[in-house]
UniProtKB/TrEMBL annotation:
It comes from Dethiosulfovibrio marinus. Pathway: Pyrimidine metabolism; UMP biosynthesis via de novo pathway; UMP from orotate: step 2/2. Signal peptide: none annotated. GO terms for molecular function: orotidine-5'-phosphate decarboxylase activity. The keyword Lyase applies. The keyword Lyase applies. It comes from the Bacteria. It catalyses: orotidine 5'-phosphate + H(+) = UMP + CO2. Its EC number is 4.1.1.23. Transmembrane segments: none annotated. The gene is pyrF. It is an enzyme of class 4 (lyase). The lineage of its organism: Bacteria, Thermotogati, Synergistota, Synergistia, Synergistales. This is Orotidine 5'-phosphate decarboxylase. Catalyzes the decarboxylation of orotidine 5'-monophosphate (OMP) to uridine 5'-monophosphate (UMP). Keywords: Decarboxylase, Lyase, Pyrimidine biosynthesis.
Length: 237
């Protein structure tokens, strides 16, 4: 669980350049504790940029959704475990051995980096899912993958806000739920399984992940205020 004085909001920095990301963060400084770095900014700025964010005081969520054979994942986790990350994502589709190797590698080195498993991408709907994964209902995969993340010893699972009630009875209450696909109002974009920050928190999200609703807002500071109010409303229960 996040600290009481922190807003459980992770801002996804899916911006074009490192300079754009720095500019946006200057506007939200003091209102935000967590940032998510994805493949683009990691490709541009690498570990150097991660360390810059850590030095600014942000907790960095590196969302690379690693999915590979267990040995390759072990080697990667050993390298990522030493760069000051708050958390790293792995894809639950990689299976138990991959997930367990990651946890063991992290624990062996005494790193505090959290490991979160991706269940089913929030951009999937049934049609897109069944095209890529025929013969398995999306909801069944979601429940099974959430359970697998928990049973393999990960710290948390990433899922859509609408998935939270579906996985609730399959995972222990302490498994952190990190929830993208959060919108104040629909933007008509690629996120299909969405809810408001308030609804996501009420449904059991420990952290909400939001990118475009913040960095594409006409007024970033006021968007942050509205999102903060919605999260706080959700925290009231
Ligand atoms: O801009 P938006 O609010 O849609 O950003 C959501 C972020 O969460 C993106 O960076 C996306 O890669 C990430 N994410 C997601 N669905 C998942 C896991 C991560 O949307 N299942």
């Amino acid at each position: 669980m996040h600290r009481d004085d922190e807003l459980p909001l992770i801002m996804a920095l899916d911006l074009d350049t490192l300079a754009d990301a720095r500019k946006t963060l200057n506007l939200v400084r003091g209102k935000l504790d967590y940032v998510k770095i994805g493949p683009r900014l990691f490709a541009l700025g690498g570990v150097h940029f991660v360390k810059e964010m850590v030095d600014y005081g942000f907790k960095v969520f590196l969302d690379l959704k690693l999915h590979d054979i267990p040995n390759t994942i072990r080697l990667a986790v050993e390298a990522f475990g030493g760069i000051g990350l708050w958390s790293l994502t792995l894809h639950a589709a990689g299976g138990r051995r991959m997930l367990e190797e990651a946890v063991a590698a992290r624990d062996r080195m005494g790193s505090s980096m959290k490991l979160f498993g991706i269940s089913v991408l929030t951009s999937f709907n049934e049609e897109v899912w069944s095209e890529a994964t025929p013969g398995c209902p999306m909801e069944e995969a979601l429940r099974q993958r959430a359970w697998l993340c928990d049973d393999s010893g990960l710290d948390g699972v990433v899922c859509s806000p609408l998935d939270l009630p579906v996985i609730k009875d399959r995972v222990r209450p302490g498994l952190l739920k990190v929830v993208p696909g959060v919108r104040l109002t629909s933007l008509g974009d690629d996120q299909t399984r969405i809810a408001t920050p308030c609804q996501a928190i009420k449904n059991g999200a420990d952290y909400v992940v939001m990118g475009r609703p913040i960095y594409k807002a006409d007024d970033i500071e006021s968007a942050m205020n509205v999102i903060g109010d919605s999260i706080r409303e959700g925290l009231k229960g």
